[in-house]
Structures are given as C-alpha cells and as structure tokens.
Amino acid sequence: MNDAGDNGPARPHDGTDRADDFTVRLRVNGRAHDLRLDPRVSLLDAFREHLHLTGTKKGCNQGACGACTVLADGERILSCLALAVQYDGRDLTTIEGLATDHALHPLQAAFVEHDGFQCGYCTAGQICSAIGMFNEFQDGVPSAVTANVSSPTPELTEEEIKERMSGNLCRCGAYVGICDAVRETFANKVTR
Amino acid sequence: MKPFAYAKAVDAATAITLRSQFATARFLGGGTNLVDLVRQGIERPDALVDVTGLPNDRIDELADGGLSVGAAVRNTAVAKHRLVRGRYPALAQAIVSGASGQIRNMATVGGNLMQRTRCDYFYDMAANCNKRHPGSGCDAIDGFNRMHAILGTSERCIAAHPSDMCVALTALDATIHVEGTRGERSIPFDAFYHLPGDTPHIETVLQPDELITSVQIPPLGFANNSIYRKVRDRSSYAFALVSVAAAIAIADGTITAVRLALGGVAAKPWRAHVAERALLGNAATPETFRRAAEAELASARAASHNGFKIELATRTITGVLRELTEPGDAR
User: Is residue A14 part of a domain?
Assistant: First the structure.
C-alpha cells in the first residue's frame, strides 16, 4: 500500500493487503464496492485510483478549488478532504452517475448549451456542486447573501447562485456560462 | 503522509478510551481542516478517532428556551435550523459566511471550534512558527502579516483565529460542554481559548482526555436582533479581515443590553468587553458606537502590514451597531 497522494496522483494500489487496511464499502452511483484501504486514502483517490472513476478531478487537493466535489447522500462534499474510511456505507454520486439511459443530466446538457467550461477540468465538480446546491436551497439553507435568514428568499437569483457556488473555482473564467446553465436548469424548479 | 490508525467511536466514553490508547491521537470530525494538516505534515497524529458517529448529532431546544447543539452536528445543519435562524440570526449568518457549501456540509461544530489558524507561516513547514514548533520563532511578525491579528497577540505569535461561527457563539454567551475521564464540565466560550502569550502552541483549555460533546446557547431574547458582518478581500469564500457579531437591545433610545464579538483581528474569537461596557446604559447613537469601538481597539497592536485593521474594525463595529439600531437604514 502506498501513500494517499501527497503530491500529484497516488500510485495505484499494489494489491498487497496490510493488517491496518480497512474494508470499506462504498456505494458509488448505485453500485456497491468493497475495497481494502489504508485509512489515509482520500475518497477522491478511492474513486480515481481504486475504482478508476476518473471523472472526479484532483485540483488543489486541499479543499480550496472544488474540482473534487461529489455527492454523499445528496449532499455536496469535497472528496479530497474526505477520508474514504469515513464514508463506509454511504451512498455516493460522482459525475459518472448523473446521466441516465444515454441521456445527459439536464444540467450537463445546459453546460454544453451555455459553454459552461473551456478546459473542462472544473466541470465535474461544478455540476455535482450545483446539484447539491439546489438540494440545499430547496431544503431551506440560507446563504451569506440571503437578506433575512429567518425566512430565506424563495428565489434562486443570480446573486444567490454565485454566492452558493463560490466554492468551485474556474480558472478559465467560464463563470457566466456556468451561472446561466445553473439558473436555466434550476431557477424554475424551486418548489418550496 | 505519516501512517495513522483509524477507529470509529460510537459514544463519548468509547472515543475518550480509544484516544487514550495512543500517544498522539486526535479526534476526527468532518476532516476539513485536520485531514489537510495531517497531509501537510503539520499535525502528525498516530491515530484518528472518528467522532462523527456519536449520537450527539442533534440540535435540541432546552427548557429555558436556549439550544443545545451537538458537537457532531454539521455546520450547514446549524445554519438551516429554524430556531437558530429565528432566535440567533447572527449565528446562521456567521456559518454561511465561512468556507464553502461543500465544506460546511462536512465540518462539524466540534471541529469548527478546534480548527487551527490559517497563518501562512504556520502552514509553511520551512518557516519558523512557535505554534507549530515551539521555540523556533515567529516569521509572521516581520513577514507578510496583512491577515494577522491585532488583539491578544504576543511577541511569540500574531496568528488570527479563523472561525466565523465561533465569533457569533462568543457573542451569544455560548458554553462548551466537554466530557473526560474525570467527568463532565462546561466552559464559557470566552474562557475556552488561550491567548498565545509564551505558549502559542497551547490553544485551548481542553485536556487530552476531554472531548467536546455539545455547545449550549442560552436564551437571549434580544438576539433575534443580531447580525454578523464579515469584511474580506473577495465577497465570498475568503477568511475575514474583520468580522463583527452583535446583538443589541434599546429602550427609549438607551442601550439596555449588548453583545459584541470580533473575528479576523484576534488570537481567539474576541469578545469585545471594553466596547460592551462603553455601550451599556448610553444613548444608541453613532457617536456612542464609534467611541465604544475606539475604546475596544485602543489595546490593538499592529504589525507591519495589518495596521489598517484598526480603523476597519472600528468602522465595521460602528456600522453593524447602526444597522441593528436603524432598521431600513445603513444596511
């Protein structure tokens, strides 16, 4: 077993099992995987290096960029700061799990339509983050721009989208397209 | 990364026992700070005891109208809670002012309290830092210290405490409930953190055998008129240059109760006792607010790049108190 990827990508699991490895059951995109993992392995490296689900990207690997965002039981989290062993038994969704029956998720289609990317490295994180963001909004979570936190605004304005998506950086600067895609996909779906 | 053992505790007693079986174990919450610190080699625990599975993941209303917030509750869940938003809006605002949506979903209340400073020199393993390596010196004092503290600092450390949530909790008279091998105790927020003094590596009064189990927020009727304002270099996802949590009650133009705390400017979440004394019983005017803010900042000591924080903090305190007392104006 190697290290968990301090610098650059982690080396793949060498197949040797150690006494201090843990059996971790990760339910990813509806499918259960039983892995033997060193507790240092991040959820991000478990996806990429152990399950070969490379759609989730490693950007900063320190919780600053949002590229590694995935959903855990519908909540967006940063897989780089998550130890895989802590997510034993959780229901996880990565970018690979969003499309159904060869049809893109509506947000994926909107990203294509609105040029919500240039290089594409942040895109998986942006899309998973926006899905989690909308779940939070529907659930009544306020934001730093919500005028009255006692009764959060029911309107998913551009200002709310920008604030709630601030944990996802795009170094190409495709923010306008990203915002348009998120707004088109979700603004009319607010049901609370 | 140095190898560590991992164990998941099911209750506080188990967690404390597990931790005692290792020399340098740490409790693990959401991991948003600790995992990074371990990866960087700044923290080198021999074991992580996961306390996110403890049953203290609830927010309960107390008989007196206060709230008990379990240490394993995620930050988002606190900000979302109806009674938090209604009774302590400054707390909900402080939480959603911090970090990002993803990090707030992961981070626990106990972990937020125990997070470490984001001083660049603390993070830079090549730099001298008395907090990371006691006795090595402080490279921040003569370095790039624009983000650093101006209150409660020492010759050994000028690191700022990074939390937003803790600033609101400090203003709201919250207490921290801990369990240890010798029993339970409650610690007022204002007495939980040590100032750096000669031992900046000792940050809280928490003992190695003690685990934070909950935070109690007392009933504070006028706290429904409270706000948290955060001033930072960009409008979101940045640490505070200055932040202010305040609650105030006015009767016939006179200040009858006030709670005030500062973030981004101090070695710990900073209860502004001096300003509170200058406000209480006086007329709720901008002049009173400004004088009180100046009185609080009188003890500030600026380093080479952060002197602007003195006036910025003074203005932010004044502006927040005006916002609370002039509804519809100054907002």
Answer: no
Contact A183, A156 (CB under 8 A): yes
How far apart, in whole angstroms, are the C-alpha atoms of residue B196 and residue B263? Answer: 16
Indicate the SS3 state at residue A135. Answer: helix
Chain A stretch 37-96, residues whose beta carbon is closer than 8 A to a beta carbon of chain B: 38-40, 42, 61-63, 66, 69, 75-78, 81-83, 85-86
Count structural domains, chain B: 2
Per-residue model confidence (pLDDT) at position A4 = 42
Domain boundary among A71, A97, A123: A97
CB contact under 8 A, A167 and B103: yes
Residue whose pair of structure tokens reads 């979700």 in the numeric block: A186
Cβ(A33)–Cβ(A26) under 8 Å?
yes
Please report whether residue B37 resides in a domain.
yes
Q: Is B267 exposed, middle or buried (0-12, 13-18, 19+ CB in 10 A)?
A: buried
* CB-based contact A83 B237, cutoff 8 Å: no
Domain that holds residue B305: 227-325
In this prediction, residue A17 carries a pLDDT of 61
Among B100, B226, B236, most A C-beta atoms within 10 A, so best to mutate, is: B100
With cut-offs at 50, 70 and 90, classify the pLDDT of residue A191.
confident
Q: Which residues of B touch A39 (CB under 8 A)?
A: 4-6, 48
Contact B39 A62 (CB under 8 A): yes
> B196 Cβ partners below 8 Å, 6+ apart?
B130, B131, B152, B153, B154, B156, B157, B158, B159, B267
Q: Domain limits at A50?
A: 22-97
Judged by CB atoms closer than 8 Å, whether chains meet at B92 and A144 is answered as no
Same domain flag for A120 and A183:
yes
Cα separation, B235 vs B233, whole angstroms: 7
Residue of B nearest to A68 (CA): B102
Stretch B204-231: mean pLDDT, rounded?
Answer: 97
ipTM of the complex: 0.96
pTM summary value: 0.95
Count structural domains, chain A: 2
Per DSSP, A87 falls in state G
Shared-domain flag, residues A65 and A121: no
Q: Are residues A144 and A161 in the same domain?
A: yes
**Residues A4, B1: C-beta atoms closer than 8 Å:** yes
Question: In this structure, what CATH number is given to the domain that contains residue B46?
Answer: 3.30.43.10
Any idea what the CATH number is for the domain that residue B234 is in?
3.30.390.50
> Where is pLDDT greater, at B244 or B329?
B244
Among candidates A76, A149, A165 on the partner chain, residue whose Cβ is nearest the Cβ of B92 = A149
Number of H helices, E strands in chain B: 13, 12
> Given a cut of 80, is residue A132 above it in pLDDT?
yes
Count of pairs with CB atoms under 8 A, one residue in A, one in B: 116
Domain assignment present for residue B161? The answer is no
CA distance B279 to chain A (A): 26
For the ranges B52-56, B184-188, B189-193, B326-330, the lowest mean pLDDT is seen at B326-330
Structural domain includes residue A138: yes
Q: Which of A42, A66, A97 is the last residue of a domain?
A: A97
